[in-house]
Amino acid sequence: MTTEISVIHLLDVATGEGVEGELRDAIEQAQLNDWQREWQPALLAVLQDLARRGVPIGQWPQSWHWDWGKKTARVQGLLAFRGFSVVAQGVTQGLAQIDLTKAGREPSQAGKPLVYLDYIEVAPWNRPELGRPPRLRGVGSALLTAAVALSDEEGFKGRIGLHSLPQADAFYARIGMTDLGQDAAYQNLRYFEMTAARAQAFLGQE
Amino acid sequence: MKLERSKDWWLNRARREGDAVIGAGLLAFDPAPEERSATAPAEDSRIAFGKFVNLMRRRRGLSMEQLADAAEVDASELLVIEDDVHHRPEPRTIYRLAQTFEVSQRRLMQLAGLTAANDVGLRQEAVRFAARSESVQKLTSEESAALEAFVAVLSEQEPKRVK
Amino acid sequence: MTAKRTMTLNLTDAEMRALDDLSVRKDITKTAVLRQALRLYQTIEARVEKGDKLLFENDATKEKAELMFL
């Protein structure tokens, strides 16, 4: 399968200018390399800084411990799993992995297939919660847009679901996703779903 | 899949995002270490474990990243091991560190609190070691001595195994 | 959109009814039902190949039934 590339625009926080980027409908070797060589050292630098400042580990950013390489290897060649990546300024800015085997829980769409966001992560230098001004804004939104658009294209009418990181709960609520509460089977992360009706509004809105 | 939206459409999305955090997925979530260690942590020996890793690394003149490379472990886990007494390291990490530092894996597991130490000896040694070593940039002769003595404890008290 | 190819399917009336029924229940097109079926079948096959078992568990009785593949 060849990777399709959509041109997108991100916001350079320092200059307030738009930056052209690519939304790619795959996670490829180049992304895994970037994760290893660019993301990991950047994250380590942040963690060392937090440790030096004596910030308790409970307040450290989430997702400092994942391994994208392992995750993508596990689902290699399976139709049910898809990836997206955002590339700009020559480096991977965000990654998402999608599972197409899950079904809705929200009453109006219970049991109906949806796009489940298995993982989303934005590059450490774009993450405001790490205590430094983020470089690019819009990476996470672009990945979510891709998920909703994929759901639409697959005939799932834009339905998506995800288990939110606690620090991200507010954002999903703000874009109109339904909060279905803490999920005991997923370490009490809150489960959010976007309904078909909400998805159409999300994809439109020029 | 191809998306076609105007530049303004994307930039509006980016602006609306503000300083929101966006992340999802169970594997993205690192539970607070307090929750991770449900069993009572043997804190004094774990302090010694963190110091031990720190001193051994510095004695070899390695940065955290270099040690992570050499031992094939996650650099972020080393950071937590050295700095956070509540952290319960992965057994694989202990195994790799024991190999790298050439000390007994069983002892190191006990020190890290992953297995129960059934002798008070190691515990006392660990407390003594932790008390004698202070975390500073350069290894003092005091620290070197403490480290040497502790390495001996970690290496020699392992019952001889028949290969 | 990724290029797609068309194929003709020969289904019995009963199979066609099942497809229609799933399409309504799941709120997806008949093509989407078949594509979803293919994804699920392939995923299960990959897990079984790895040595995993496919089990159904009744939430109320906790009774387990193994679904055999291959």
From TrEMBL, chain C:
InterPro entries (UniProt xref): Arc_rbn_hlx_hlx
Top-level division of the source organism's lineage: Bacteria
Gene3D superfamilies linked to this entry: Met repressor-like (1.10.1220.10)
GO biological process, one term: regulation of DNA-templated transcription
Entry protein name: Transcriptional regulator
Organism: Teichococcus rhizosphaerae
Taxonomic lineage from the root: Bacteria, Pseudomonadati, Pseudomonadota, Alphaproteobacteria, Acetobacterales
